[in-house]
Design goal:
Layout (H helix, E strand, L loop, with lengths): L1 H15 L17 H61 L44 H52 E3 L1 H4 L2 H12 L3 E6 L4 E3 H22 L3 H6 L6 E10 L2 E8 L6 H10 L4 H5 L3 H5 L23 H10 L3 E7 L3 E9 L4 E9 L2 E6 L3 E6 L5 E4 L2 E6 L2 E7 L25 E7 L2 E7 L1 E11 L11 E6 L5 E5 L1 H12 L5 H4 L20 H4 L1 E5 L3 H13 L3 E5 L2 H9 L6 E4 L8 H9 L9 E5 L4 H10 L3 E4 L4 H17 L1
Parallel strand pairs: 2-4, 13-15, 19-20, 19-21, 21-22, 22-23
Antiparallel strand pairs: 1-3, 4-5, 5-7, 6-7, 8-9, 8-16, 10-14, 11-12, 12-13, 14-15, 16-17, 17-18
Helix pairs in contact: 2-3, 6-11, 16-17
């Protein structure tokens, strides 16, 4: 019927020559359980993890192809040198003694120019020519030619693999684009308009007006703003509580408003809009605002230090209203005074990775700003490393990134600040707060970090900025968010986690919670449940801040020097498993060139018997250079005699191991040598 109607309309418009209008179509709808949408969402999260794994594997393949091409090039150069050396030796060995050489000017017998008899057919006729007149090929030359042909064939295969890798990269880009579209459409399916939630608020306000004798109008802007269904459900109670709180604490009685020059009817306004990957919801009223003196008095009655409260800023005092048991109501009613509410609002927002901020103006009104993520399943994060631990920071909370310059850091009593664009920003060195009371394996990602120097992340906390210093940055990545389930709660400052493409689990940072925890820990003698939101009130417990010794294995690089590639690989595997970074050199000369070329290492493991430059020669050359006089060098050799050991120690070796070696003893000695060098 729809098709027939459309054809009739098309004929009619063409005959009457009126502008055609597209027919109205009605989308068919289906009803499906929400759990099926949740299941699809979980599957898309797994797809994101596997997509990141595919990207990681492609990066590995690119590295392997580059390494293969480089090694084939080296092999080709080595084969050319081998052929040159062979040709030189073959030419010299084939030259006849002077007395046996024939004189080209001496007449030759006629038999020399007569045709060869049939008896010589099938014999090597090249023997009658001089080496300069005809090349002779031995088995070694033929083998060299076969190697050259194999090299050419490997180069062809390498080129084919590179072309296939480029095609795979194109397919991966298309996959990422399709996955992005799938995510967008799946997110839209889960979205519901804000009107589904705030529709019932109008009636609630009307009932409260009749019950308490106030005149209040509720305005809603952005009713059509789409919000994830699970986030919308989690916002139901917090929004209702904030509206009731605005009605009770904010809006005055009609006679009071008239006396203040305001209209008798108050206004509560809810606004919603998207900003990047976040949704901003504000609840504002035009009431009398929040009385800061009441907050001070209530906080002092609950045990906070009076001098501390007197020095507190407006934002720091307002943050106290979100603490458990805090209320400024004069009497207990069905709306307020029970000390339950605002802390629940913050805790509910924390479950959906949201945050809340409050601004107030005396006699003008109060505004609560809620920030929630656009979706709970996928997020864009910045991977950073601090104290040997990988962390994922949502990119939405990062305002700026900059390298840490020592001259920008100023020390104040009990804390540090960063001078940036004419402002003094509180500086928090995150590594000092990530302490571990048990042994752990340092996590390091594959590849090279995008920023391998101390970096500062500028985090917006309301109207203020906080500078967080991390050790290294590994770039941005789209990740799937996974909840951590179990009897143990996540530590303060961490909301959930993600799984990277290589299977590593990285915690997702809840920045607001992390900063609150750091603030509360700075002054352990203060009631942290009340002072946790006051980062600038406390003098840093940092008269003695927690000093954490950075694990040497987190950044230590070891140079392995051995002419056997199997030995180098075996040692590299053991060292990397222990958390070290490993560089390799094929002999002493190669090691010297790398060190003089700028390679920075914390220790060296070296063999003795090697071509070009042996281990003793390496020791003598390196230890004679003042730049490497304190570099720990451990000798690892099959020579067990005291003579060999004594010579190595005399030349400056820090340790001496014989093959086969004890891996635990080698790693323990290596760690001691590095720590001794750092402490010195």
């Amino acid at each position: 019927m729809q098709t027939a109607d459309f054809r009739w309309q098309e004929v009619k418009t063409s005959s009457s020559k009126e502008p055609s209008t597209p027919p109205e179509t009605q989308d068919n709808t289906v009803r499906i359980p929400v759990r099926q949408l949740d299941r699809l969402n979980d599957l898309f999260g797994e797809l994101t993890i596997e997509r990141n794994g595919l990207s990681l594997n492609l990066a590995r393949l690119r590295t392997l192809i580059h390494t293969l091409s480089r090694r084939v090039s080296h092999l080709e150069q080595s084969n050319i040198r081998l052929r040159t050396a062979y040709d030189s030796v073959a030419t010299q060995s084939s030259a006849l003694p002077k007395g046996l050489q024939s004189d080209p000017l001496k007449p030759q017998p006629a038999s020399a120019f007569s045709p060869l008899p049939s008896a010589f057919l099938g014999h090597d006729l090249s023997s009658s020519f001089d080496a300069l007149e005809m090349d002779r090929y031995s088995d070694l030359h033929l083998l060299s030619m076969e190697v050259m042909e194999t090299i050419v064939q490997i180069q062809e295969v390498t080129s084919d693999v590179e072309l296939s890798l480029e095609d795979t990269d194109g397919t991966t880009r298309e996959l990422n684009q399709t996955a992005k579209q799938l995510q967008t459409n799946l997110t839209r399916i889960r979205m519901r308009p804000l009107s589904d939630l705030v529709g019932r608020f109008t009636r609630a306000i009307r009932d409260l007006c009749l019950q308490h004798g106030k005149q209040v109008e509720l305005k809603v802007s952005g009713k059509g703003t789409l919000i994830d269904r699970s986030i919308l459900e989690a916002l139901s109670d917090p929004l209702m509580h904030l509206v009731r709180n605005a009605f009770d604490h904010g809006i005055e009685k009609p006679d009071v408003r008239l006396a203040q020059g305001k209209p008798a009817q108050g206004t509560i306004e809810i606004k919603a809009a998207h900003r990047g990957n976040q949704t901003m919801i504000t609840i504002s009223d035009d009431g009398n605002g929040i009385n800061l003196n009441k907050i001070r008095a209530r906080a002092e009655a609950m045990g906070l230090d009076a001098e501390l409260l007197a020095a507190a800023s407006e934002d720091e005092l307002l943050s106290l209203i979100f603490e458990p048991g805090f209320s400024t109501a004069d009497q207990v009613t069905d709306l307020s005074g029970r000390g339950v509410g605002m802390d629940v609002v913050r805790n509910n927002l924390k479950l959906i990775r949201g945050d809340i901020r409050v601004d107030t103006t005396p006699l003008k009104g109060t505004t609560f700003t809620l920030t929630v993520p656009f979706t709970l399943s996928v997020a864009r994060v910045l991977l950073v490393e601090s104290n040997g631990m990988m962390l994922a920071f949502p990119t939405d909370v990062i305002e700026e990134m900059l390298l840490l310059e020592p001259e920008q850091v100023l020390t104040t009593p009990g804390s540090e600040v960063l001078k940036w664009e004419g402002e003094m920003i509180p500086l928090i060195r995150l590594g000092a707060w990530l302490t571990f009371r048990c042994s752990r394996k340092v996590m390091t990602l594959e590849g090279v970090p995008t920023i391998s120097e101390p970096t500062v992340l500028m985090i917006a906390q309301g109207e203020q900025l906080v500078a967080l210093q991390v050790d290294r940055c590994w770039g941005e990545q789209e990740i799937a968010i996974r909840k951590v389930e179990g009897p143990l709660e996540m530590p303060p400052g961490f909301a959930s986690c993600t799984i990277l493409g290589d299977g590593k689990v990285v915690p997702l940072v809840d920045v607001a919670s992390l900063l609150r925890w750091i603030a509360s820990e700075r002054n352990p003698n203060t009631d942290s449940s009340l002072i946790g939101q006051l980062p600038q009130l406390s003098t840093q417990s940092a008269d003695n801040p927690p000093i954490v010794e950075y694990p040497p294995t987190a950044k230590a690089t070891i140079l392995v020097v051995d002419d056997s590639i199997n030995v180098r690989r075996f040692l590299a595997l053991a060292l990397e498993k222990a958390g070290y970074l490993v560089e390799q050199a094929k002999d002493g000369q190669d090691a010297v060139e790398k060190l003089l070329g700028g390679l920075h290492v914390q220790a060296v493991i070296c063999d003795i018997e090697m071509p070009r430059l042996d281990g003793y020669g390496f020791l003598a050359r390196i230890k004679s250079n003042p730049a490497f006089s304190d570099l720990p060098i451990a000798m690892l050799t099959s020579r067990t005699g005291d003579k060999h050991r004594q010579l190595a120690i005399t030349l400056g070796a820090s340790a001496y191991f014989s093959k086969p070696y004890n891996e635990r003893e080698l790693l323990g000695t290596l760690s001691d040598l590095i720590n001794a060098r750092i402490s010195a």
